[in-house]
UniProtKB/TrEMBL annotation:
GO molecular function, one term: O-succinylbenzoate synthase activity
Coiled coil: none
Xref: SMART domains: MR_MLE
Protein name as catalogued: o-succinylbenzoate synthase
GO biological process: amino acid catabolic process; menaquinone biosynthetic process
Functional summary from the UniProt entry: Converts 2-succinyl-6-hydroxy-2,4-cyclohexadiene-1-carboxylate (SHCHC) to 2-succinylbenzoate (OSB).
Keywords tagged on the record: Lyase, Magnesium, Menaquinone biosynthesis, Metal-binding
Source organism per UniProt: Vreelandella titanicae
Gene name as annotated: menC
Family to which this protein belongs: Belongs to the mandelate racemase/muconate lactonizing enzyme family. MenC type 1 subfamily.
Domain Mandelate racemase/muconate lactonizing enzyme C-terminal: 114-205
Length: 316
C-alpha cells in the first residue's frame, strides 16, 4: 500500500481576509492512500487547528496505517482528508448544478465593476448570487445589494454576515432590505439565539454555517431555511452525513460549501454535493480566487506544485 503526504501553497489572485486575517496564499496538505486522494486544509480564522497541528497528526495517522492500524484523526481537517482518501465513493453520481457565484470585495470597488460582472452573465444571470456583508459601512453594503437586486431581478441573493453583527445591527440592516430577493442571510450574529431573534423581528430567512462547525446547539425554526455544510471544517464525513439527515428531517435545504480548498479538494466537495444535495446549487465558487492548480484537467496530481513531506509503503 502506498501512502504519502504533500504540502501545497497556492497564491490567491488577490489577498483575502478571513476573520481579520489577511492571506496571500492558501496552504494545505494532500494525502494519498493507495492512489486515492484527500485534502487537509484548515482555514485560518475558521478552523480551530493550525496547519502545523494538522501536519503532525496526518504524519502520525500515516505511520499508524503503515503499522497496519486504523488511522483515528481527531482534528476536523485531518478527519476530512483521511475519510476522503479511504472512502468507497459511489460509482454513479448525479450531475451537479453549477455553483452559485460568490462576490467578495469592497462594495465601492464592486459597484465600479458591476457593469462587467452583470455583462459577464449575458442573457443567463445566475439563479443565486452570494455576497459577504457585515464587513464595510452598512450604507455601502445596502447600496450594493440594491443595485444587484435592480440589475438582476431574477437572481436570489444569499448574504453572509459571518456572525459579524450584534442583534441590533443585524436588525437595522434587515429593516433596510427588501426581502423579496433575499434567498437567506447566513449567520447574522455570533450566537444562535440572536440569529433567531433577528429572523423573528425582521422576517428574514436564515441559514447556519459557523453554528454547525462550532458544534453549537441549534433547532429547527420556521425561518431557518438552509444548512451550509463545510465538510473540511466539520471533519468526519459521517458527522456531515448526520447533518444532511437532520436537514432532511427538518425540511431544510443543504448547501455544500467550500473553504477555499485547492482544485483537488473542490473536486471532492463537488462529489459529496452531488451525492448529498444534487438539486441545490453548491457554494463551491472559490477556485477562481487561486491562480494555480494541483491537478491537471484530467485529474492527475501535478507533483511539481507540491512539497513531499512523507512517502511510505506498507506490505498490505
Ligand atoms: O459558501 C460559499 O458559497 C463559498 C465559500 C464561502 O463563502 C466561504 C468560505 C470560507 C469562509 C468564508 O469566506 C465563506 C463563508 O463563511 O461561508
Ligand atoms: Mg458562511
Amino acid at each position: 500500500m502506498q501512502l504519502a503526504l504533500y504540502r501545497y501553497s497556492l497564491p490567491f489572485r488577490q489577498p483575502l481576509v478571513f476573520k481579520g486575517q489577511r492571506l496571500a496564499n492558501r496552504e494545505g496538505l494532500l494525502v494519498t492512500i493507495n492512489g486515492q486522494w484527500g485534502e487537509i486544509a484548515p482555514l485560518p480564522g475558521f478552523s480551530t487547528e493550525t496547519l502545523a497541528k494538522a501536519e503532525t497528526e496526518s504524519l502520525a495517522c500515516l505511520a499508524a496505517i503503515k503499522r497496519g492500524e486504523k488511522a483515528m484523526p481527531t482534528l476536523p481537517s485531518v478527519q476530512f482528508g483521511f475519510d476522503c482518501a479511504q472512502r468507497q465513493w459511489p460509482a454513479n453520481l448525479p450531475a451537479l448544478l453549477p455553483p452559485y457565484p460568490l462576490l467578495q470585495g469592497e462594495p465601492a470597488a464592486l459597484m465600479v465593476t458591476l457593469d462587467n460582472i452583470v455583462a459577464g452573465w449575458g442573457a443567463l444571470p445566475p439563479t443565486r448570487l452570494k455576497l459577504k456583508v457585515a464587513r464595510y459601512a452598512m450604507e455601502e453594503e445596502l447600496a450594493l445589494i440594491n443595485q444587484l437586486a435592480t440589475r438582476l431581478p431574477t437572481t436570489k441573493l444569499i448574504l453572509d454576515a459571518n456572525g459579524g453583527w450584534t442583534r441590533e445591527e443585524a436588525q437595522r440592516f434587515c429593516e433596510c432590505l427588501s426581502l423579496k430577493q433575499i434567498d437567506y442571510l447566513e449567520e447574522p450574529c455570533a450566537a444562535f439565539a440572536d440569529t433567531i431573534a433577528v429572523a423573528e423581528a425582521t422576517g428574514v430567512a436564515i441559514a447556519l454555517d459557523e453554528t454547525l462547525t462550532r458544534g453549537e446547539e441549534w433547532y429547527c425554526h420556521p425561518q431557518l431555511k438552509a444548512l451550509v455544510i463545510k465538510p473540511t471544517l466539520i471533519g468526519s464525513l459521517s458527522d456531515c452525513e448526520a447533518l444532511v439527515q437532520r436537514a432532511r428531517a427538518g425540511n431544510l435545504r443543504v448547501v455544500i460549501s467550500s473553504s477555499f480548498e485547492s482544485d483537488l479538494g473542490l473536486g471532492l466537495l463537488a462529489r459529496l454535493a452531488s451525492e448529498w444535495a444534487p438539486s441545490e446549487p453548491p457554494g463551491l465558487d472559490t477556485e477562481h480566487w487561486l491562480t494555480e492548480r494541483v491537478t491537471t484537467a484530467t485529474g492527475e496530481v501535478v507533483a511539481e506544485n507540491l512539497h513531499c513531506l512523507s512517502k511510505m509503503e506498507n506490505s498490505a
